[in-house]
């Protein structure tokens, strides 16, 4: 920040606004139950053994105001919200023992743009996160379906290590 152009009042106001923004409960890097869809659970039978496979999405949303605000003219700013979805897979036997955990390598991103700075778009961003819940759940189901060959190979490899 170039403080040479700011007077003491505007510098103090800028610092106060930045501190309030940084300490406020915000959705800049939000993860949690409200933003995270439910886990996807599948039952799988492989080589005569039943498994319970849980795909748990880890959702992180980052927001950033982009563009300029040229004084008295209308703003050119927009809020870019990027939601990253990582998926953890956990394989368990039906009795809940012998967990095999793995984070899937494909991270999905959903990007949205809103007119105006992020601070003025809190309600719109919250509504967008709620609308994304269905898209996130669909992504988790699609990743679970495409993960099946790798999952079976990992189960076979773990079983081969346990037998030897």
UniProtKB/TrEMBL annotation:
<protein>
    <recommendedName>
        <fullName>UrcA family protein</fullName>
    </recommendedName>
</protein>
<keyword id="KW-0732">Signal</keyword>
<feature type="signal peptide">
    <location>
        <begin position="1"/>
        <end position="29"/>
    </location>
</feature>
